[in-house]
Predict the 3D structure of the following.
Amino acid sequence: MRGRTGAWLVQGVNQRTYVAKWAQPGSVRGLISEMYAGTLLSHLQIRTPPITILDVTDGVLLERSDYLRIRGIADRARLHPGCHYGSLVEPDLERQAVYDILPTALYRTLDNRMDFVATLLVDKLLNNRDYRQAVFYRQQRGRRQLVAEMIDHGMCLGGDDWVFEDAPLWGIHVNPAAYDEVLGWSQLEPLLEEIRELPPALLESVRERVPAEWLLIEGGLAGSELDRVADLIMARRTKVRSLIQAVLDLPDQTIFRNWGCASPIEYPIKKDCTRAAANPGRLSASSGAGD
Ligand SMILES: Nc1ncnc2c1ncn2[C@@H]1O[C@H](COP(=O)(O)OP(=O)(O)OP(=O)(O)O)[C@@H](O)[C@H]1O
Ligand SMILES: [Mg+2]
């Protein structure tokens, strides 16, 4: 599999397929970030694979190292059987194609395109330092309807060291077509409100699921570190709107290309649309779609 974490495709005893990400020194914070983001996204009904803690056997690790050895690929991982992170692969890989990249014209056929802007709010809350990644596939074989599933949240919580800083372009998906149905604040307010009201118990539930052995693998990562990031997340709940405003305030922002337009505009953008860019930070929408 591609990717910097050395993810690996495995099959569970339940016959389901998972992308396994390995718990080893240096990776555990990223896995915990995946757990926080996956839990929050699912809670907000944004499409993302359910989080699974895999119990990986010696046999799987041997198969993996044989695979690498035969192909002459250096194996720098220090893996032990036990708990590792699993991201469920929902489509049937024997029959369904899964794509990392979607042609721009196909974004408008996505069943859940609004999930991208919803995920951006969560990425801002969780201080995702990466761009927003997703996989795309057809929900049912032979059907045209595509869905996007949000994956790879390992750089949330401020990245590898859990140091929170902000930058307007962090968390943004690579293709702005993902945000073309976003017209103004009125679409975002309900979710912003839900985020402001996120219960602390949700974060506690993540903490309880973090395998104790991961903390040991990470050189005795302290439970108080988990409390610290949970407190930081809670404190950021009211900050998300201003973090989105920072995106809108970018000079000539081209992320929300239809912000301030009167109605959803399919790609390509209508030429007669009045854009907010002439008045950065304040919207000139006449439709009531913005504020
Ligand atoms: N749940 C999933 N369903 C289908 N495919 C997946 C899933 N999770 C990951 N993948 C595939 O595995 C690849 C690697 O996953 P991911 O991006 O999470 O790993 P990573 O090592 O963190 O990558 P990066 O280099 O972006 O940090 C993805 O590009 C995607 O193709
Ligand atoms: Mg990735």
Q: What stands out?
A: The chain has one domain: 8-278.
